[in-house]
Amino acid sequence: MKSILFLTLVLNLAVSKPLQLFNTSLTITVRDELGNIVEGVSVKLFTKEEDYIKEKNHIQEATTDAKGVVKFKKLNPESYFVLCRKGDKDNTSGGEKIGQLKKGEFNKVTIVIQ
Question: Which of 45, 77, 88, 106 has minimal Cβ neighbours within 10 Å of its Cβ?
Fold first, then answer.
């Protein structure tokens, strides 16, 4: 009887706490105004709007690959401000803020630079 009670307790604990198998991540695809992917774009993530405006204190930075993609891992599930720039093209005319990321998931967005 005690072993059944113990087994029930262990199973309840195992089921009640979901395992987080994945870190919260963000994949950004950068395209130009014609919809073409853009390689070599500098992408910076900011947690605060004031830092985004002043372009300082970014939390992560990466450059898009040949497919126009950049991946950020181990992020907190919150909103981020994103600055994408290559030459004289950037995303400051729209698409600067990404909504709250889903915890433990692979979040994806596309940003247009012009």
Answer: 88
